Amino acid sequence: MAGNDPELRVVRQNRDGRRRYDEKGKRALVEAALRPGVSVARLAQEHRLNASRLRKWIAKYLMEREKATSLVSQEEGADERDSPHLGSRRFPTGISFGRGRRIHRRYAGA
Question: N or C: which end of the chain has fewer CB within 10 A?
Answer without folding.
Answer: C
